[in-house]
Amino acid sequence: MLQATVTKHSLIFKQACGTSRGVLHQKPSWFFKVFDDENPQTYGVGECSIIPGLSPDDNSDLEPFIQNVLKNINFYIEDKSTLLQFPSVQFAIDTALLDLKNKGHRILFPGEFTNGKDSIKINGLIWMGSKDFMRKQIGEKIEEGFKCIKLKIGSLNFEEEISILKEIRMQFSPEMIELRLDANGAFHPENALAKLKRLSDFHIHSIEQPIKAGQIEEMAKLCEQTPIPIALDEELIGINKFEAKRKLLEDINPQYIILKPSLLGGFERSSEWIKIAEEHQIGWWVTSALESNIGLNAIAQWTYQLDNSMPQGLGTGKLFSNNIPSPLQINDAKLFYNPENHWDLNQIIR
Q: Which tens digits make up the pLDDT trace of 178-200?
C-alpha cells in the first residue's frame, strides 16, 4: 500500500512580481512525498503549487482536501475523477507517482535532457513594473542571450507600454528578438482590437489572453480579426472534460494555446489539449506556473519529450530566494539538467 506525507513551503520572490491581477511577494506550495510502506526509503516527490487569484483550487477547501488525500491516497490514485476540482493536487500526485516509478531520483522522463546532453529553448520573462524597471529587465535578458522575450503588459499606461516596445524595435529587429506579450486579460473587449492593431506595428509574435477568460463570443471574434496571433491561457483553466475542451477550441479557434500542467490537472489532461489543438492546426507551447524547481523539473522533462522546437516558458527557476537546490540551470537562453548537480530536499521533506 502507498502512503503519503506533505510539507507546506512558502516560496519567497527575490523581487516583487507584478501582473495585471496584482503584485506577488510570496506563494505557497505543498510537497507530497509518496512511498510504499514496505520500502519507505524510496519515495517520489510532487508539488502542489497555486497562484493566488488564478488557480481554481485557491480556496479555503484546499488544505482540508490535501489532508483527506493523505489519509486516502490509494483511493485518489485509483479514482482521478475525484481530483477534477483540485488540478494542482492532481499534478502533485501524478508527478510523485512518476518519480516513485523511476526509483525516486527526480527523473520522471529519462532521456537526453536528463542525461545533460540536450536542452530546452526558453523565453526571457519581463515582469510588469515601472518603465525603468521593465527596461532594466529587458537589457538583462538580452545580455543573457535571449532571442525570445515575453513582456507582461497591462499595468502601465498603454502609451508607456507602446513606447517601451518602440524602444526595443529601434534597437532589435524581429529577426534579432522575438517579442511575445501577455496581457493576462487586461484589455476590454470594446477596445481590444484597436490596441492589437497598435501593437502589431512592432511585429509581435503573439499575445496571451488579451481579454479576460469566459468571454467566448468576444474572444472568438477577436481571434478572427486580430493582426497578432492570440494565445489562450487562463481560458483553458477549469475546462476538464475532453469534449468541453474540443468545443472551446472550435468555438474560439485561437492561433495558439498555452499549457500550464499544474493549473490544468497534470500531464494527461494537458496532453488532451495538445491532441485537440494539433487536430485543428492550433499551435502550442508549455509554460511553468511559478512552481519551485520540483514542479519546474517535472514540467521541463515532460516538455522535452514532446519535441516542440518553439521557445518554452520555463525560465522561472531563478525567481525565488528559497528555491529547492537542483540540477536545473539556465545558460545561453536554454534550460539544462546538469546530472553532476544534486537535489537538496531538506527544506521540503520530513
A: 999 999 999 999 999 999 999 99
pLDDT over 70 percentage in the chain: 99
> What pLDDT is recorded for position 20?
54
Q: How far apart are CA 1 and CA 133, in angstroms?
A: 52
Single out the residue of 276, 227, 275 nearest to residue 248, CA to CA.
276
Q: Which parts of 158-297 are beta strand (E)?
A: 178-182, 204-208, 230-232, 256-259, 283-286
pLDDT at 18: 66
Per the CB < 8 A criterion, the answer to whether 88 and 291 are in contact is: no
Helices (H) and strands (E) in the chain, counts: 11, 13
Catalytic residue, candidates 141, 212, 245, 260: 260
Grid cell 537546490 in the structure block, residue: 325
- pTM here is 0.95
Residue type, 298: A
| Sign, Cα dihedral of 271, 277, 281, 283 | negative
Could you give the domains of the chain? 2-101 (3.30.390.10), 120-337 (3.20.20.120)
What is the C-alpha to C-alpha distance for residues 148 and 57, in angstroms, rounded to an integer? 31
Residues with Cβ < 8 Å from 68, sequence gap 6 or more?
none
Q: Which residues pair with 30 in a beta bridge?
A: 8, 48
Per-residue pLDDT at 349 exceeds 90? no
Bridge-based pairing of strands 204-208 and 124-126 is unpaired
CA-CA-CA-CA torsion sign (40, 42, 47, 48) = negative
Active site residue 197: no
Residue 350: is its pLDDT beyond 90?
no
Catalytic one of 27, 150, 152, 212 = 152
Cα separation, 175 vs 75, in Å, equals 52
> Three-state SS across 95-161?
HHHHHHHCCCCCCCCCCCCCCCCCCEEECEEECECCHHHHHHHHHHHHHCCCCEEEEECCCCCHHHH
